[in-house]
Amino acid sequence: MYPVPTPPPQPSVEALLERIGTEFAYLSKQLKTIARYVEHHHDVIGLEKIENVARRCSVQPSSVVRFAKHFGFNGYRDFKAVFRDGVTQTSAPSPVYQHRIRSLQDATPQLLRSADVTHAFLDDALAGIKELQRDLNGSALDDAVALMAASPTLWVTGARRTFPVAAYLGYALQHTNKPIQLLTHLGAMPEGQLRGLHANDVMLAISFAPYAEETLTAAQIAVTRGARLIAITDSRMSPLAQEAEVLLLVHESSTFGFRALTNAMALAQGLFIALAYRLEMPADLAAHAVMS
Prior knowledge:
The protein is α/β, with parallel strands linked by helices. Helix content is about 55%, strand content about 10%. α2 crosses α3 (about 50-55), α6 (about 95-105) runs antiparallel to α7 (about 115-135) and α8 packs across α12. The termini are far apart.
């Protein structure tokens, strides 16, 4: 008798999401819509029926099956099993918890006290921080700090909603011995503000959907000139992700239609403190940290 072939090992959620992000640019319009939905709802998709996914993506169930088969699965059931198993391996609050908060808010009277509104934001912020803590890629964070430590000059850019995060980073990083340049985008003249950027400088670009054109333009100029890009963004399918040497993903909660900046600010603070710690290391320890 011939031995029964062993099925290939099931990929991890992270590995599957990375592959989806890598192949995103080559997917059809419908499959791109499904890809975005899968990434932003990866904590709950393992529990969702195919009909629900199709309806929320405004596609037919056959498109969801085609998406699963594109990535090597026999069908949607095998595809969602990766995410279902991932859900059972974490105890951190997930979007399921956030959906419960939304339901409670929907059931409340129209007139909310100021304290009720604030508590709703705080509840979502706490859930979001737990999710960031659980999902943050430690090796990517190490790579980002190593790039920043080795860079001749650090550039920071973020426009519109993410400008407060960029402004904080520009302020905090001035407490290191690194030359810092914060792009303000005043006058819509990024080329002029970036005139002093050189190869091997590092740019930290921060942008979330719908992705500020000013930030994308600055990042593209930086990469063209040989700078190294660290992207802080919300998706592997983000325009910044395609150009980034290091990708740091941040998913923010939304309360009453307003998206928070809690996670992005926490990550920015962590980056600054980690860089300051690295720069203050004795030379032999810093060299060991880079090699490890």
